[in-house]
Amino acid sequence: MALGIGCSARPGRSRGNRTGAWRVFKPVFRHNKCTKCGICSMVCPEGCIIEQEDEFMIPDYDFCKGCGICAEECPAEDIEMVKEEK
Prior knowledge:
Radius of gyration: 14 Å
Distance between the termini: 39 Å
Low-confidence stretches: none
Structural class: alpha+beta
Helix content: 10-25%
Largest sheet: 2 strands, antiparallel
Order of helices and strands: EHEEHE
Shape: globular
Strand content: 15-25%
Strand order of the largest sheet: 1-4
């Protein structure tokens, strides 16, 4: 399969490659001020923030690399980046 310029892999291609183990900080979703806007999910470069049945978002820590984009872009400031305990 040839990849063209600007091509990206379809979602789910690396589900077996759990990349969250080397994270230094992790996002903690408080759900105190969350408006359920879904921006955190839209901006996550790993696509690892998923919607629960109650419509709140949660990260899949097996794949979250701790980049902090979700916390930075959350308009409600309801996501806190905390140091990962190993």
